[in-house]
Amino acid sequence: MKSPALSILFAGWLLTGAAHAGAADHVHASHAWIRVLPGNLPAGAYVTLRNDGDQAIALSGASSTVYADVMLHRSSTAGGMSRMTMVDALSVPAHGEAVLAPAGYHLMLMQANATVKPGDTVRLTLNFTDGSRLATDFLARPANAMDAGDDHSGH
Fold it and tell me: Fewest CB within 10 angstroms: 11, 30, 56, 134, which?
């Protein structure tokens, strides 16, 4: 016979897990873009993540229906040598932000299953270490782009 207290405890655990596995309510994405390279070369995805929550959260990767594999990487230069390394997570501080940008942290998009051209929008689901997710639309930009191209400060 099951204990009613155990059943209530289990139900509470499921509800708590479901809340964590849902949307990243306190995280907002902006300036999301992809640098598209010719052919089926890997593409880089960049975004600014803003955390309005009271606790830090960590980006652990992403997924996409357009790309077979998405990895979190960091580019760095030391002694005149550039290198790229895969990282497990990127912290987004409480009431702060983390920027994924060229020559720094970025998402490496591998093996597109469809042609992605400048001007296209690609949805990526950003995954966080607490199990939450954030679906974000990324604008495809040409290979020579250095930013999202959405600066309207002069308008």
Answer: 11
Full set of structural domains in the chain with CATH: 24-141 (2.60.40.1890)
Beta bridge partners of 34: 45, 140
Q: What does pTM read for this prediction?
A: 0.80
* pLDDT higher than threshold 80 for residue 120: yes
- The answer to whether 74 and 84 are in contact (CB under 8 A) is yes
| Backbone phi, psi, residue 92, to 5° | -115, 105
E strand or H helix that includes residue 7: helix 4-20
Burial class (CB in 10 A: 0-12, 13-18, 19+), 133: middle
Q: Can you point out the beta strands (E) in the chain?
A: 27-35, 43-51, 57-64, 67-78, 81-86, 90-92, 96-100, 105-112, 121-128, 133-141
Return phi, psi of residue 118, to 5°: -55, 135
Per-residue pLDDT tens over the stretch 23-39: 788 999 999 999 999 88
Beta carbons within 10 angstroms of residue 97's beta carbon = 14
- What is the three-class DSSP state of 8? helix
